[in-house]
Hints:
alpha+beta, 6-stranded antiparallel beta sheet, two-stranded antiparallel ribbon, 18% strand
Amino acid sequence: MKTVARAAELLEVLATGGPGTGLSVTEVAQRAGVSKSAAFGLLQTLRHYGLVADEGEGMNRRYRLGMALARLGDRAQAQVSLRDVARPLLLDLTAATGMASRVAVPQDGQAVIIDQVDTRSGLRLDLRMGARELPHCTGIGKALLAALPEPQARALVARTGLPRRTSRTITDEATLFAHLADIRATGYALDDEEDADGIFCIGSVVRDHRGACVGAISITGLKLDLPGWRFRELGLQVRDFADRISRSLGYEDAPATAPGTAAGTPAAAPAGSGGRTAGA
């Protein structure tokens, strides 16, 4: 087990090397905290399996990560399902908030729901699998829209339009894009009765190992008389659970915070997920 652990540590050390450069065996040994002979032996074994590559001779020999890791990485990604990774965390999110939770993927400019967890209470919202959420007035849709580069987001809005769903729906493009900037700053989006009267939703995006947005999660509930601070509290919870899913997909920039704790700029105003009895 110690040998396996040391080999893993060596790979992590080599991962710190910049593009086109490598590390000498002495540098690897020092950074990994092992002897030079131990480092050399491990490097040669890893090299045999293509996990490490080297170039140069003698004192000029440098080691870097091998391309076999790229192959294994591709295979690992092929075996990962966003739905499977998100499912246990959605269960925890629903238990923590008492609200229905969902996960969606972007498709043709809309958020398509691929899994959901209902509450155990008697109250059930009609949240349908496979439902498509509008990008401008649903929390999960706005979270995905905010993750796009602005030119792409503007092109999408130009194509889908800003149809009014309720009296609170944002139908002005300038207002929407100012709102999307707030969503990027807070890390979550709140739909405050923008898709259906009496319903609110909060969404946050999920990223993969490349940092690409691959989906989003949300919670949905009845607005009732919830105070403003409660929306912020729920928004931080949704964002933290989305970060946990992102880390499970290999995203390294997601802040390692516990669910329910602040991990960035606090949200000042609702900006969130699609809310209608049929969606989030």
